[in-house]
TrEMBL record:
Origin organism lineage: Bacteria, Bacillati, Actinomycetota, Actinomycetes, Mycobacteriales
Transmembrane stretches, start-end: none
Listed SUPFAM superfamilies: 4Fe-4S ferredoxins (SSF54862)
Database matches in InterPro entries: Fe-S_cluster_ET
Keywords: 3Fe-4S, Electron transport, Iron, Iron-sulfur, Metal-binding, Transport
Protein name: Ferredoxin
Domain of life of the organism encoding this protein: Bacteria
Cofactor(s) it depends on: [3Fe-4S] cluster
Recorded GO MF terms: 3 iron, 4 sulfur cluster binding; metal ion binding
Keyword rRNA-binding (UniProt): no
Length: 75
């Protein structure tokens, strides 16, 4: 599992930080900082929530080189 961020899309809403505070940090008036770019599998649910609820869809998750559509909220 590897997290990516598109800083052109990130607007610093900090939803990711709320969902997974050990993985993401958003300073005041700043953009997301990924604290754990490859978090442990037990954090997968929290990371998926952060990605799903990101208002600008700036975050993505990959497994073995493929994008995780479930974490993006795709059906």
């Amino acid at each position: 599992m590897k997290i990516s961020v598109d800083l052109d899309l990130c607007q610093g809403h900090a939803v990711c930080q709320f969902e997974a505070p050990t993985v993401f940090a958003v300073p005041k008036r700043g953009q997301v900082e990924i604290l754990e770019p490859s978090p442990d599998p037990e954090l997968r649910e929290a990371v998926a929530g952060a990605i799903r609820y990101c208002p600008t869809r700036a975050l993505s998750l990959a497994d073995d080189g493929e994008t995780d559509d479930a974490a993006k909220g795709a059906h």
